[in-house]
Design goal:
Helix content is 51%, strand content 0%. By secondary structure, the protein is mainly α. It has one domain. Helix 2 packs parallel to helix 3.
């Protein structure tokens, strides 16, 4: 999928209510859109979740994310639903 950063940030503003990507977020997302496999390891608070949530709204099908943090999953699902993004969580509870 080809999408310029400007086009992507227009979608970002409309769907996620965020003004722009961090440069490293955009590099990651751009790579995913180009079909690259990505391993992203970054500090807490960097915005890693957006790096899979944003591409997930662009592609057909299901995006599955595995996380050991139930509280984080709850918060992210709540926020995505608030933004109108279809999302669910399955966990050990």
């Amino acid at each position: 999928m080809t999408l310029t950063r400007t086009q992507a940030e227009d979608i970002l503003r409309a769907r996620f209510r965020l003004s722009q990507f961090y440069d490293e977020q955009w590099e990651t997302i751009e790579g995913l859109l180009e079909g690259q496999r990505i391993l992203l390891i970054h500090r807490t608070g960097f915005g890693k979740s957006l790096c899979y949530q944003f591409p997930a709204i662009l592609f057909d099908g299901i995006t599955m994310v595995f996380s050991p943090l139930i509280a984080l999953m709850r918060d992210q699902i709540h926020q995505l639903k608030f933004l109108g993004v279809s999302a669910e969580c399955i966990n050990s509870e």
